[in-house]
Amino acid sequence: MVARKRTTSKIYELHVELEHIEPPIWRQLLVPASITLPKLHDLLQLAMGWTNSHLHSFTFGDKAFGMASADGFEELDMLDERKQTLEGALGQSAREFVYEYDFGDSWRHRITVKPLPLRNTDWNYPMCIGGARAAPPEDVGGAHGYEEFLAAIKDPTHEEHDSMLTWIGGVFDPEGFDLNAINRALRYGAQ
C-alpha cells in the first residue's frame, strides 16, 4: 500500500507531552490544520501506542469537545468533536490545548501548537518527527499506577514482579521509542 501525499496549505507542529510523568513522555507531530478532532484523536492513539479503548476529550480554553456517541454525552457539557477541525477549535490566538484519554486513568496531554510557515510537498502528513519514552500501558492505573508498575517490573523480588510481566506480555521498556514504527502506524492508520 502506497501512502498518498496530503494536500493542505497549513501544517501545525504539535508538541504532545503526557502530564505528571517524569522523565517526560512526549511526541512531536506534524498534522494538517484541517484535521478533524476525531482524526486527531486517532493519530494521538497511534503516536502513543494506545488502543482507543476509552473515552477522550479535547479542551481549548473554556470549550471542551468529546465523543457525541458516548453514553451520557449530554451530561458531560461538551461540544460534539465531529463538527470541529483543529484549526477551528484553536481559533486565531490559542496555541495550547489539553487532550485527555481514559477518564479513569486520566492521561492528560498538554499540547502546544506551532504553525509552520511552509509545508514540505515531499512529505506525507501526518508524521512524527520526534519523541521520547514509551507511553504507559493501557489500564495501568494512571500516573501513580504506572510508577508502581515500573517498580514491580524492575525489581525481581517485588511481590507483583511476575504477575506484572505476565500482564504486560513478558517485557516492557519504558525508554522505548521507535520513530519509524510510529510513522508506519500513522501512515497506514491515517488512511
What structural keywords apply?
alpha+beta; 8-stranded mixed beta sheet; 8 strands; 2 domains; 25% strand; Structural Genomics Hypothetical 15.5 Kd Protein In mrcA-pckA Intergenic Region, Chain A; 191 residues; single chain
Short description:
By secondary structure, this protein is α+β, with helices and mostly antiparallel strands. Helices cover 26% and strands 25% of the residues. Helix 1 (37-48) runs antiparallel to helix 5 and helix 3 crosses helix 4 (161-168).
What does the model show?
The chain has 191 residues and is α+β, with helices and mostly antiparallel strands. The protein folds into two domains: 11-134 and 175-189, Structural Genomics Hypothetical 15.5 Kd Protein In mrcA-pckA Intergenic Region, Chain A (Roll); 136-174, no CATH class. The chain has five helices and eight strands, in the order ββαβββαβββααα. It has helices spanning 37-48, 86-90, 142-154, 161-168, 179-189; strands spanning 11-18, 26-32, 56-60, 63-66, 79-80, 96-101, 107-116, 127-132. An eight-stranded mixed β-sheet has the order 5-4-3-6-7-1-2-8. Helix 1 (37-48) runs antiparallel to helix 5 (179-189) and helix 3 (142-154) crosses helix 4. Mean pLDDT is 90; it is low at 4-8.
